Amino acid sequence: MEKRRVVVTGIGIVSPFGCGVEKFWSALLEGKSGVKTLTRMSLDGHAVTIGAEATDFEDEVNQKGLLDPKDMKRMDRYTQFACVAADEAFKDSKLEMSKEDPYRVGVVFGSGAGGFDTFEKQHIAIINRGPNKCSPFTIPMLIANMAAGKVSMRIGAKGLNKAIVTACATSAHCVGDAYRSIQFSDADVIVAGGSEAVITHIGIGAFATARTLSRRNDEPERASRPYDIDRDGFVMGEGGACLILEELNHAKARGAKIYAEIVGYGQTADAYDMVAPDPSGAGAAKAMELAVKEAGILPKEVGYINAHGTSTHLGDIAESQAIARVFGDLNVNPDLKVSSTKSMHGHMIGATGAAESIVCVKVLNESVIPPTINLDSQDPEVANLNYVPNKAIKEDVEYALTNSFGFGGQNASILLKKYKG
């Protein structure tokens, strides 16, 4: 069976910069940090007091009427992010469900953690007031597949519907598996992405005790610093991101705007450690190799890589060495540009793969590469690559790749191509 071609026809995001792709993209090109002192929770006793919060989300949603207030009360924050991002992407795509077979429109939307906020609040209610005092909506609010379910209900999509949970690789796998499903005719259109809302006591506290978060509490904007010698961990982010994937001929038949084509998807496992990456970078390298191989291109044709680049010591080294192994370092491939936008929007966990796929889509369309901010003194242990330090650069790119790697050793790479008609 011949694989069908898959394109991106809509994008949407909720990020620390607000609701909407243009706010997100403008902030990245400006080199703006979304990291600040946390405001939504008590910071008493916390070793880490900073994060990339979507601080204006509720105000923006209420002012613009993006969600029904009654419905919001029955959704965890992660599901609210998912619905707003998906609504933007679906509106952007200009799809009309009245003209579609609803069983050919699917949703693949995941979350690394699900409803952490709901879990915490309802657990407190049970402890303080008894087991009969938790909300009757507790289970549908906290389970990790509810975002996929709610998104399908909002648009009337009755096709395949699933939620992938692979920690930080979650939404990259969602986009990749949606791509595969359309390739093999399980659907014509899929709403794909992920969302996360783990800026909670357990989210911040547990990651902090695992020594994975930056403790640069006195300089929030400078805390996320991938590849820099002074990095001390990642910064927790939150939000939701969504792409509308569509079979090429289906998109062309309805006159859709086509942002980019997905041409490669690689997925592997490190089989190494629960948290630490394989220091050899073998699994990460293989995922990238598989994506490039599927596209049928040479590694040197990839002009931009949005790296996983979390700002952890081991992770940045392992991934950068893997990139150099597959694509060549500056001595071999001086044209390759690599940046980590997590330096600005933080690590959005289950939303990050889709968010960074949107970055690649914008790079292909706008011919501008966002920077890695806070890169003041490059760590000599990371590979010799152009990490686009501190300032965006103009660059025409035909192929862009994004990496996402999750706790448990799950790796995903997605390769996108500029669409030329």
Word description of this protein:
The relative contact order is 0.18. The chain has helices at residues 21-29, 57-64, 69-72, 77-93, 116-129, 138-142, 146-155, 170-183, 201-209, 248-253, 282-295, 313-327, 342-345, 352-366, and strands spanning 6-15, 18-19, 36-37, 50-51, 105-110, 161-162, 189-196, 239-247, 260-269, 304-306, 337-339, 368-369, 393-394, 399-406, 410-418. Strands 1, 2, 5, 6, 7, 8, 9, 10, 11, 14 and 15 form an 11-stranded mixed beta sheet that branches. It folds into 2 domains: 7-253, Thiolase/Chalcone synthase (Peroxisomal Thiolase, Chain A, domain 1, 3-Layer(aba) Sandwich), CATH 3.40.47.10; 266-413, 3-Layer(aba) Sandwich (Peroxisomal Thiolase, Chain A, domain 1). The longest helix has 17 residues, at 77-93. It is built from 14 helices and 15 strands. β1 (6-15) and β2 form a beta hairpin. The protein has 421 residues and is an alpha/beta fold. α4 (77-93) packs parallel to α7 (146-155) and α11 packs parallel to α12 (313-327). It starts with 5 loop residues before the first strand and ends with a strand.
